[in-house]
Design a protein that fits this description.
The complex is a heterodimer of chains A (411) and B (269). Chain A has 411 residues and is of the alpha/beta class. Helix content of chain A is 25%, strand content 31%. Chain A has 2 domains: 236 residues, Rossmann fold; 131 residues, Coagulation Factor XIII, Chain A, domain 1. The termini of chain A are far apart. The relative contact order of chain A is 0.11. Classes of the chains: A alpha/beta (411), B mainly alpha (269).
């Protein structure tokens, strides 16, 4: 008989009270008085984060979770961590949970990195003696040198994540929750994280893993859960789940639907100019989001100003599925003749003679002002692009540079 | 609840140490800062001749007023500082609360325990005052740990209620500031409070003030060498009865309410 699952969700529902209502006594007291007087209870505005979610993770299994911002990923992790309790259904967690939720959370800025290791361990219910035994390995893994004895407020965000992951991945736990570490660290650190997680999985730790890096998800996860609007859309083999996810993202045409569900603080961009109706098109005879190698790729969309702003710069980037930037083209919308201050405009970026090798890529579209910190709108690596070509080709690499061969026989 | 707290005792200790280190970090006086407020108030109210408010019939009329006042100001400082600083402690610990599941009591309680260091420093100063005035040390001092334990239990219960409710209504932290300041004047900090009001009901009510009960017990033991009793407050002499009842009620009630609210704290904070 297989071991009981480490994590089990059965029809889990979770909703939250909307902010800004009844937050002060001034609002709550009259409400309380009305209720005491036998009046009807005011219906509280609630936001449903999870709406009947079921899944299970066995020991030694890696379950990936993908979904747009606001789809319920973080709520799921917090329910497993025991920070939240479900409103309905059942959350069963067997064993100790180590979590890296919200990258910097759980660190005290005025304490040194070393002291924070102990604080973090204590938060997971570890004894001081147990942490002393782990300290060396954690410090070595974090690899931040003598900074370990400096206050955490002097750390870069990358260093904070390194330390946070190091603690979570070293404390003995039956369940490991990892939220978006891979988006912050450099490639080397990413590799280090994946190796560490692979080891933990071999030791029988169940891992729940959230990332936007779909390529890593596909390689690393045993199963991938696609969540949308608080529901499980797909729960299955990574390749199949991620294909469904890509399809879902592509089918939105515009990313507005995704972005509207996102909480404002994690939405990228000020929204003063909104990018809409992005199409990635490889010409006649190709499916949306596909283009033949050597053919012409068109990336088009619409710019809609919501506030009076000067002409934006528009950039179209193509990343490989490993996250390597292949190219970025940037243009001033007014100079290119597709900007009207009141109406905005439509744009197309044309890449003739597409010199990318066949494979999976991701297209980003960005509208920004030259000197501003925040862009107007950023659709980061959200449009899948498949470059089609001869599958049997032995060419390799990112780009297909023009090449001329020479040489002669003999010595 | 106790089992949970015991499992996370290292977390509690770490947070207490963190509180202590962070509070006086980068100051010149360091922990001596904790002496400044009670000593300044002692001098101030002595200069204002508050000694007039100690009735001549009281046994304390013969005690030097600065020592009398300091004996009340010192335990009161622990109570008031714990509540004013601790009420917002949970609301300010959002990052910690949303990271992992642990008994949330440790956050406000670590504040309370860290402030015991201030009390210890203040007590050392009290010893100097007693030596200076030649007040003898008697066997009744042995009751002080018990009285302190009751005061800490009472404060802990009140703190649990306030810190948890402040997560839901941020008004609470402000109300506490006002409440604690006014409460000092109906407590026997600078004068025997019940003797200040002529209304018999009010005086009887003030007789049941648990903080007065603790402060009276400290004073009687330290300054007059008398043991506290558990008699009704209407009887003569210091009694710990109001304090004992309030400590039990506060700790049980506060602990119960905190447990009821705590599943919602992480999502409301």
């Amino acid at each position: 008989m297989p071991a009981a699952p480490s994590i089990e969700f059965r029809e889990v529902r979770k909703s939250f009270r909307m902010r800004n209502r009844g937050d002060s006594l001034r609002d709550a007291l009259p409400r309380l008085l009305r209720r005491l007087a036998g009046g009807p209870a005011a219906p509280a505005a609630r936001f449903t984060a999870l709406d009947g979610v079921s899944f299970a993770v066995s020991p030694g299994e890696v379950l990936g979770v993908v979904g747009a911002n606001g789809a319920g990923k973080s709520t799921t992790l917090r329910l497993v961590a025991g920070v939240y309790r479900p409103d309905g259904g059942e959350v069963i967690v067997r064993g100790r949970v180590a979590a890296l939720i919200e990258l910097s959370a759980g660190f005290h800025p005025d304490l040194s990195g070393r002291e924070n290791i102990y604080l973090n361990g204590a938060l997971l219910g570890m004894r001081r003696r147990e942490m002393e035994a782990l300290e060396g390995a954690i410090v070595a893994f974090a690899g931040i040198g003598e900074h370990i004895d400096a206050p955490v407020r002097t750390y870069s965000s990358g260093m904070v994540v390194r330390l946070g992951f190091a603690v979570a991945a070293h404390v003995p736990a039956d369940i490991l929750l990892v939220d978006e570490v891979l988006s912050v660290g450099d490639i080397e650190f990413r590799q280090q994280c994946l190796e560490r997680m692979t080891r933990r999985r071999q030791e029988g730790t169940a891992i729940l893993f959230v990332s936007h890096n779909l390529k890593v998800m596909e390689q690393f996860c045993d199963r991938v859960l696609v969540v949308r609007g608080g529901k499980v859309l797909v729960d299955g083999e990574p390749r199949r789940s991620l294909a469904a996810y890509r399809e879902q993202v592509a089918s939105m045409g515009s990313l507005r639907a995704v972005r509207e569900t996102a909480a404002p603080q994690i939405r990228k961009g000020t929204g003063e100019v909104v990018i809409e109706g992005v199409l990635v098109d490889g010409g006649e005879g190709t499916a949306p989001g596909a283009a033949p190698k050597g053919g012409t790729l068109r990336v088009g969309g619409r710019l809609r100003p919501t506030a009076p702003v000067p002409s934006p710069l528009v950039a179209v980037s193509i990343h490989s599925s490993q996250g390597v930037l292949c190219t970025r083209a940037t243009v001033d919308a007014a100079a290119a003749g597709f900007w009207d201050p009141a109406e905005g405009g439509t744009f197309t970026a044309e890449f003739p003679g597409l010199s990318l090798h066949p494979g999976a890529y991701e297209v980003s579209v960005l509208a920004f002002a030259a000197n501003a910190v925040l862009p107007y709108d950023h659709h980061q690596q959200l449009y899948p692009l498949e470059v089609q070509g001869d599958a049997a080709s032995i060419e390799d690499g990112l780009v297909d540079l023009p090449v001329r061969w020479g040489g002669s026989p003999g010595a | 609840m106790l089992h949970d707290l015991w499992r996370f005792r290292d977390l509690l200790l770490l947070l207490v140490r963190r509180e202590i280190r962070v509070r006086y970090a980068r100051t010149i006086l360091g922990v001596l800062w904790s002496l400044v407020l009670p000593v300044a108030m002692m001098l101030f109210f002595t200069l204002l001749n508050f000694s007039r408010l100690v009735p001549a019939s009281s046994d304390f009329a013969a005690v030097p007023y600065p020592v009398f006042a300091y004996c009340g100001l010192l335990p009161w400082a622990h109570f008031s500082t714990t509540l004013t600083q601790g009420a917002a402690s949970l609301a300010n610990a959002r990052d910690l609360l949303r990271k992992s599941a642990f008994p949330l009591e440790v956050i406000p309680l670590s504040r309370l325990l860290a402030l015991l260091l201030d009390l210890a420093v203040g007590s050392a100063f009290l010893v100097l005052l007693l030596l200076w005035h030649g007040i003898p040390f008697g066997a009744a001092l042995l009751c002080l740990p018990l009285v302190l334990l009751l005061q800490v239990a009472f404060t802990a219960g009140v703190l649990l209620v306030l810190s948890a409710s402040n997560v839901f209504f941020r008004d609470v932290a402000f109300l506490v500031q006002v409440g604690v300041m006014l409460a000092m004047f109906v407590t026997s900090v600078l004068y025997p409070a019940p003797s200040m009001v002529s209304h018999p009901w009010l005086a009887a009510l003030l007789d049941w003030n648990p903080m007065s009960s603790f402060i009276d017990a400290y004073r009687e033991a330290v300054l007059l060498g008398r043991w506290p009793s558990l008699a009704l407050p209407s009887a003569p002499g210091p009694t710990l009865l109001p304090g004992l009842l309030a400590a039990a009620l506060s700790l049980l009630g506060g602990g119960w309410l905190f447990r009821r609210l705590s599943p919602r704290i992480a999502e409301e904070v």
